[in-house]
Design goal:
Layout (H helix, E strand, L loop, with lengths): L3 E2 L1 E8 L3 E4 H4 L7 H8 L3 E4 L5 H15 L9 E5 L10 H9 L6 E5 L5 H14 L5 E8 L10 H4 L5 E8 L6 E9 L7 E2 L23 E2 L1 H22 L9 E4 L4 H10 L11 H4 L6 H11 L8 E8 L3 E8 L1
Parallel strand pairs: 5-6, 5-7, 12-13
Antiparallel strand pairs: 1-9, 2-8, 3-4, 7-8, 9-14, 10-11, 13-14
Helix pairs in contact: 3-4, 7-8
């Protein structure tokens, strides 16, 4: 294993004020609360009515800075790791940069790998820190999928929630950081999860008004579930063997909070002990790229993780991409 060293200095999270229960979701969907809970496992999620993605990101970053030993003036790079940007141009991190009124010396950069954005951004940041390109980096995953929900697809609409999480990481000379990172993409399923319109392929200038639903989130949940349950165990086992690690090496496994059905299947197929397998889907819903950092933030904040503990991050994302990262704190 080749360690990409970094130290987590601080983290912070932000949730919109409006909490939406499974019961309240009944009024938007043609299904009842029991169906929502059975299909998704999401008891509560948060929707932002008037705070855009950059605003939520700025609030999460400010929370992280409150406890950070690294002051804002020593930050070199800001990475926005998100699948739901406020607009196509300029890049989302520039909008966050403006929201925070950051100095020109802090470079903004976007990493968009949908639900794997945080893990991909962490690898990018760790590589830049290891090569001494930057000294201190903020990574923020701020997501607002609620504005693009398709209420005619209740299973996906009942699943997603808004929120933001930020991490401040720095160079380290100690044996801590990313132990390994692996990704695989099965692009034959690239259209199984998508928002088709909004780019140059399906631009408003070339679309009829009756095609507005192409701007909404669309997922073939059954296909994604079947493909993931078939292929992910092999991806996991192959790479655990490749890096000569075992599940007993890790204090916690943090999966992307895709759906409760998917999480329970993953836990069963891969034989993860329940006490190691961290689930918070019921409290927030699927936060897109924010799911993994929110869970990591909670475990650190609650003192459930301490220095030298190892954590395994596992995720799936649109593409269809699988990812995993081992971290030593």
């Amino acid at each position: 294993m080749s360690l990409l060293r970094f130290k987590i200095q601080a983290s912070g999270s932000y949730l919109p004020a409006r909490a939406v229960s499974a019961k309240e979701m009944e009024q938007y969907l043609a299904v009842d609360e029991r169906w929502i809970l059975k299909k998704t496992g999401v008891e509560n999620r948060y929707f932002s009515d008037d705070e855009n993605q950059a605003v939520m990101a700025a609030k999460a970053i400010n929370k992280a800075l409150e406890t950070s030993p690294i002051p804002l003036e020593e930050i070199d790079l800001l990475i926005s790791a998100s699948g739901t940007p406020d607009q196509p141009i300029p890049h989302n991190s520039a909008l966050i940069h403006k929201e925070l009124n950051l100095p020109a010396s802090i470079t903004p950069l976007d990493v968009n790998a949908t639900c794997l954005s945080f893990v991909q951004a962490l690898k990018v940041a760790a590589s830049l820190l290891e090569t001494k390109t930057y000294k201190n980096i903020i990574i923020v995953s701020s997501e607002r999928p609620s504005v693009g929900l398709n209420y005619d697809s209740p299973e996906s609409a009942a699943l997603l929630g808004d929120g933001a999480v930020a991490f401040i990481i720095s160079q380290s000379e100690d044996e801590q950081g990313a132990m390994f990172t692996e990704f695989e993409t099965y692009s034959e399923f690239v259209h199984a999860t998508e928002i088709a319109a909004g780019g140059t392929r399906l631009h408003p200038n070339k679309m009829d008004s009756n095609e507005s639903k192409k701007y909404l989130f669309d997922m073939n949940g059954t296909k994604v579930f079947k493909v993931t349950s078939k292929l992910f165990p092999g991806f996991y086992s192959k790479n655990m063997s490749k890096h000569d690690v075992h599940i007993s090496d890790f204090k916690y496994i943090i999966p992307h909070q895709a759906s409760m059905m998917g999480l329970r299947l993953m836990q069963k197929k891969l034989e993860f002990p329940e006490e190691k397998f961290y689930i918070n889907l019921q409290k927030y819903g699927n936060l897109v790229a924010g799911s993994i950092p929110m869970a990591l933030h909670e475990l650190i904040e609650s003192k459930s993780l301490k220095e030298n503990d190892k954590v395994l991050l596992l995720a799936t994302a649109a593409g269809l991409t699988f990812g995993m990262m081992g971290i030593q704190l």
